[in-house]
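User: Last request for today: this protein with flavin-adenine dinucleotide, please.
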Amino acid sequence: MGETKHAKVLIIGSGPAGYTAAVYASRAMLEPVLVQGIQPGGQLTITTEVENWPGDTMVMGPELMVRMEHHAREMGAEIVSDHISSLDLSQRPFTAQGDSGTVYTADALILATGAQAKWLGLPSEEHFKGFGVSACATCDGFFYRGQEVVVIGGGNTAVEEALFLTNFASKVTVIHRRDSFRAEKILQHRLFNNPKVEVLWDHEVVEVVGSDAPRGVEGVVARHVKTGATHTVPCKGFFVAIGHAPASELVKDQLELHHGGYVVTKPGSTATSIPGVFAAGDLTDHIYRQAVTSAGMGCMAALEAEKFLAEHGADAGRDMTLPLGYGAEVPQDAAE
Ligand code: FAD
Ligand code: NAP
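Assistant: Here's the final one, the structure of the complex with flavin-adenine dinucleotide:
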């Protein structure tokens, strides 16, 4: 039987949203406990240069997240290395079960579990995962020195991953299902000007092919979305960069979700459909999904949790199933 740890404010997730919430909640003397999860620092730890974090023309993603963690600790947040396997939001204090055996109870909860990479869902993709199929160029790109690789996707992640892979690979083919990218123009410009890159427009990947002795990728079968014609693009590495899905598994039966799993929050607020439970960052955001917007929502969540606790206290009971919009009030004076 593990220990029980109580927090006035429990923060789940250690990306920009979680650490920012921890800074603000600490400064409100709420002694927050932050559970980091299996990816301490979140998504930015799997990228290289971040060029749109205000105040830094360029900062490496992992370095930025180490700084955020340090900031949260210095302000007084308790940072715990654990992963939450289940949550009970049916009564206050809320309860979270950690993989370590620790049971966390909390008077207010900030969910900042972010998002996870999406996969194509092909059996052959699954078969070669870790054997040439990857969703993280910064983690695995090094293995493809002098070899050909394929990236699928047309967003910022795909273009950045492709550019990063040109540091190692002899050729990078980007396969996209449309005839234009949604990635930022500056990134597209860099991609189109890189001689190692070829773009295969209007194609989807229908199969990953390879050998089993030893297991490894040898190519992907690309199909033209209009004509249906297929051909094999040879590659040793296949990088899937088709977006991210919100990590809402913990709350899917307890909170309102929309757009394929994003937690619904009251407009202009981080309040969820359960009073005292706040959600911030990519978990709630199907539009912007940036480090700076996630951090902003982390700030809002901490200020709203502070207001909620001031009004409802730790011991007050909670009405269940209040409709969205009737939960914690948005603090009008939060910025004062
Ligand atoms: P995340 O960063 O996703 O962090 C989620 C956290 O929740 C993790 O710490 C994880 O361990 C934790 N967690 C999840 N489940 C559990 C659980 N059950 N128990 C405990 N903890 C849990 N944005 C930019 O603004 N600029 C960029 O240059 C940029 N580059 C990017 C490059 C890549 C390759 C990717 C993938 C994304 C990039 N983004 C960039 C987007 C940015 O990383 C995200 O918008 C941001 O990280 C979201 O922050 P977050 O705090 O909501 O969640
Ligand atoms: P994204 O913007 O959602 O792009 C996903 C891409 O994958 C789209 O081009 C989409 O095609 C394609 N796609 C989706 N499902 C597919 C499928 N089943 N088969 C083939 N292609 C598929 O995701 P992202 O690039 O991971 O970015 C996520 C968020 O993080 C964004 O908000 C992004 O701005 C942010 N981010 C920012 C930076 C930065 O600021 N430098 C870097 C990385 C990520 P369609 O275009 O046809 O929909």
